[in-house]
Amino acid sequence: MPLIELTDVEKIYPLGNQQVTALSEFSLSIDKGEFTVLAGPSGSGKTTVLNLVGGIDQPTAGTVRIEGRDVGPLDPRALADFRLHHIGFIFQSYNLIPVLTAAENAEFTLMLQGVAKATRRNRIRELFKELGIAGLENRKPRDLSGGQQQRVAIARAMAPQPTVILADEPTANLDSQTAEELLDLMYRLNTQRHTTFIFSSHDPLVISRARRIIRLRDGRLEDDRKQQR
């Protein structure tokens, strides 16, 4: 059974008195442990696919299954619970909470899950060490570089040990050297922990790191190929 399966998905958004079709007759399956990028120009449907997989949006038609579960019919509360326990998110703008420390940001999802404080702290301590940001636990986001903030965001995504991590343009606000370091880091996490990563990006650096490249254009699948690294 694929980890993620989209079948004949259509997604239509209202735009004033009109409608915009973001995805049309879109089908895709992704197995556990993949390191995949959704590539294509702006407006091709990349972020829409991530939003559907992540339970942020629901399909207008078709089915979205995660580990065999159809998440399309879930009500908002059930979708929120699904995201909390199954999906890790990494955003281009980091989305850290300014008033919280780096460690508090990283353990925020664990806190929402009701994980005991000692367990949260131990897990974050190990992740910060693995991600090369040990010693920065008590800094606020404003006191961290962009690369350090993104590492905190990766720790937050990894901490709950989710089914899949969705990364929407994660290198957009980073210089090329920092972006390369973080991509190598995520690749290592994928290889060693078998964490499934799905990126949305048009950054050639991200595309070159992926094992599988899925190209979209105008809301449709244009190409799907695997590459060796």
Automatic annotation (TrEMBL):
SMART domains: AAA
Gene Ontology CC entries for this record: membrane protein complex; plasma membrane
Gene Ontology molecular function, alphabetical: ATP binding; ATP hydrolysis activity; transmembrane transporter activity
Keyword set, alphabetical order: ATP-binding, Nucleotide-binding, Transport
Keyword ATP-binding: yes
Keyword hit for Repressor: no
PROSITE patterns: ABC_TRANSPORTER_1, ABC_TRANSPORTER_2
Domain ABC transporter residue range list: 4-229
Record-stated family: Belongs to the ABC transporter superfamily. Macrolide exporter (TC 3.A.1.122) family.
Protein name per the record: ABC transporter, ATP-binding protein
Organism: Syntrophotalea carbinolica (strain DSM 2380 / NBRC 103641 / GraBd1) (Pelobacter carbinolicus)
